[in-house]
Amino acid sequence: MYELRAPSPAPVRAAGEPAPESSRRLLTWLVAIAVVCVAVQLAFVVPGSGLGWDETVYVSQAGGDAPAAFFSAPRARGISYLVAPVAALTGSTTVLRIYLALLSAGALVGAFRVWRTLVPGRVLVCAGALFATLWPTLFYGSMAMPNLWCALGALAATGWVARALLRGAGRAELLGAGAAMAVVVLMRPADGVWLALPLLLVAVVRPRMFAALAVGLLAGAAPWIVEAFAHYGGPLTRLHRASEIQGGLGWNLAVDDQAKALEGRTLCRPCTIPWQRPGATVWWVLLPFLTAGGAVVARRAGRGTAVLLATGTAVSLAVPYLFLIEYAAPRFLLPAYALLSLPVAECLVRLYAQARGPAGQPGRTVARRWRVVALAAVLAAHLAVQLQVTSRVSASSKSTTADFAAVAAALHRNGIRPPCVISGDQAVPIAHYAGCASRQTAGHDGSITPAGLREAARRVPTAVLVSGGGPRPAYAPAGPPVFLVETRGEGPFTGYLFPPPDRPGPDRPDS
């Protein structure tokens, strides 16, 4: 006997949920983009690279051969936590670079996948490719710097909030938004605040999402707050000191500075350089128009809420770096670029569809092909510019870190070996390369008095560095300077070396 059974019902998907085949195809495309991104970093950025100034500060907190550098008020420890598993095991910069490149590539795939139920797969693939191939993304993907992680966290947090607004705040949306918010604040508290402003505003209509974002904000800020009470007398005092170091917040039009920095300046402070390569900024000038066009396209397609939320959040994240600080760095705008990639992709996908034209018109095939070729040529030129700038910035960075390593080697030849103390010009990164502690008597990294430096010299080898033929610092020891090395970036480096601890010197009595 045969038993008659009703056919199993097809699985029900939530509104907007892509089919499993479509979701797998999207994942494949995003993974392919991430793989290409890693390959470019391994070809251009990783080989021969060393740790930059900021990286030495973050990495030194997590372990390694050098003492921890002074941790100034504006910094947060998120990136130190991220690199800790590798820094505690090895001092190899190459291993650290590969670890971060792979980790950031995986995070890129995850952050864009959050949006898979909100925008079509082809738009997400285009957005992912656009963001992944920007030179700041390629350059900082393997760097121990917080900005790219803020960008991916902001993209994910905004996506989870958009999903909650359109489909309801389920467990995934609540946990995802809270965790992403915590990551951004842990990396850069100021970015976390500017991210929270628009998201908390729209989440008022979803109290559970509002609470999840608030918890994430507080959880991410907790280490910074605890450290503020422990070392600065409280969060307000730390904020005041951070504002001093960053030049204060106020009306400062930095739009032109950010544009000039895109030609390959990792930091433009002060940004009084001539604008030598305006071609590198063409895409940036077109960005507002492509964003507006994409917002219109998304609205007509019924995706206006999600894309407008991404655009508004991007604007919030960009405001302090365009209008409130007096210097520029392309990495500061990575969170805005990540979110703006969505409306830009909407616009470009629509332009591609228009270039192809409607089917069934064989007489216009040639014209359609030319339009597609023209659009592809523009995008290829944009990609070529990004790769060129990536190569140039990487070469400049490697030259700078080679200079640091050369000065450190010269110090070793002159008897400044661990345990040791270094002060003066570029002391923070050079001390890391030399395995010494960096101690500055003034400035952003001021952490010791001149008397304290002299006292340290009684115990360990100590040197004061001067670059570019500068004058002898008042706190440097007596005696002629010792020539160390001629560098490409800073000119000649000289050192004023305190007498060795085991031998009395002219500026110190016998101990």
Tally of separate helices = 18
Strand content: under 5%
Round the mean pLDDT to the nearest integer and report it. Answer: 90
Rg from Cα? 26 Å
Helix content: 55-70%
Number of strands: 5
What is the terminal separation in angstroms? 105 Å
Spans of at least 5 consecutive residues with low confidence: 1-16, 504-511
Strand order of the largest sheet: 2-1-3-5-4
Task: Note the run of SSEs as H and E.
Answer: HHHHHHHHHHHHHHHHEHEHEEE
Tell me the count of domains. Answer: 2
Query: How would you describe the shape?
Result: globular
Structural notes for this entry:
Helix content is 60%, strand content 5%. The chain has 511 residues and is mainly α. It has two domains: 337 residues, no CATH class; 102 residues, no CATH class. It has a five-stranded mixed β-sheet. Helix 17 links the parallel strand 1 and strand 2. The longest helix is centred in the last third of the chain and has 49 residues.
What's the short version?
With 511 residues, the protein is mostly helical. 60% of the residues lie in helices and 5% in strands. Strand 4 and strand 5 (491-497) form a beta hairpin.
Looking at this protein, list some descriptive labels.
single chain, about 500 residues, mainly alpha, 2 domains, 5 strands, about 60% helix, globular, disordered N terminus
